[in-house]
Amino acid sequence: MKRHVTTLLAAAFVIAAAPSAAAADAIDEDLAPIRARWAEITYHVPGDDNKEREYERLEAESASLERAYPGRAEPKIWHGIILSTHAGVHGGFGALKLVKRARSLFEAALEIDETALDGSAHTSLGSLYYQVPGWPLAFGDDDKAESHLERALAINPDGIDPNYFYADFLYEQGRYDEARRALARALEAPPRPGRELADAGRRQEARALLDKVRRESGS
Q1: Per-residue pLDDT tens digits for 117-162
Q2: d(CA 178, CA 62)
Q3: pTM of the prediction?
Q4: Do 114 and 16 contact (CB within 8 A), yes or no?
Q5: Which among 52, 92, 133, 202 would be 20 to 30 A from 101, CA to CA?
Q6: How many domains does the chain contain in total?
Q7: Cis amide linkage into residue 19, ω under 30° from 0
Q8: Residue 207 belongs to what domain range?
């Protein structure tokens, strides 16, 4: 069943020239506090109103970083993740505006480098496609969702995020056995250095989803 947009939390491409090690280190250093703050807001800040205020502040920071690195996919991905997560606590037509902006950022990131951040643009875009309503309200499309999520897994088969979101999609489709297998991979995913809080939050979500799959499948 298609979710309402207020429950949201994130093809051809042009391969960019490989960035230098120094450039990669610089952008990772600049992104680190944004990643950390996103995890704090998402998993530790109580109340939707408080979360929304904090996401708005973080959007301003991520937008500034995106402007500083116009040719890089990574800031676009993170700006899109923040917008789409903000949409989940905002609700209404304002949420649709946020997810449409996020979709544009993920698509732009894919045109630069689909493998950036272990294929996170595919993961995030796939999650949008199955979570937002379809036409005429929005752009939801289960076929596109599955295509992007499968591409994310081809790039990062052991990652916690692509496996979790693919499992969530499969659960929504009633494909419980497949969802269980994807959740097992998510829970066995290797830790990401510097992403301990995000990993802990995602594992908690994966365990909760696994409980729902077991209850609804009767196994």
Answers
A1: 999 999 999 999 999 989 888 899 999 999 999 999 999 999 999 9
A2: 35
A3: 0.88
A4: no
A5: 202
A6: 2
A7: no
A8: 157-219
